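Hi support team,

I submitted a single chain yesterday and got back a structure, but I'm not sure I'm reading the token output correctly. Could someone confirm the output below corresponds to the sequence I sent? I've pasted both exactly as they appear in my results page.

Thanks,
R.
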Amino acid sequence: MGGTALRGRVWKFGDNISGDDGIIEFSIIREGFGKAFDEGALRAMCFRRLRPEFPTEVRPGDIVVGGRNFGHHNHVEVSVAMKASGITVVVVESCESGIIRRALNVGLPVMICPGITDAVADGEVLEADPATGAIRTASGQHLQSRPFSPRMVEIWQAGGSIPLLQREFAERRARESQEMDAR
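Hi R., thanks for writing in. Yes, this is the structure output for that exact sequence:
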């Protein structure tokens, strides 16, 4: 695998995991949150309905593996909760395109890889490379996901859309300033 490969311990989930009523508890967010994300509260509720130990045992660099229809019915808080928990990549059998976009916007890659749930066990180590789509299990099995486009890789590596745009605008302003000074 290349320099963009991610390696971590697997937290495995099944099919039809709801984003707003499984990964997080959106009813609590709707009632008690203001406009800003409360990352601590999101981290504390992340997957706790499905795996009560998740919020206290997840470690930075861990990987979520999910089945079919993963994260359906989700808001951006779902992606923020997983990212704030330290999840480095999400690899699923299938999901809505909306979760891929929302997650990438906060710097969390979501890869679709049919067969992933049969190929890995909870707690084992998995390598996944969003840039190439390559996935390797602890047993050495190789799977292939669709690689990210170069722009998706840029967004992911920048930590999300906003950090990337801020960097690009700052670089553009610096170039324009240099051009004006040169005149």
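A quick pointer for reading it: The chain has a mean pLDDT of 92. Let us know if anything else looks off.

Best,
Support desk
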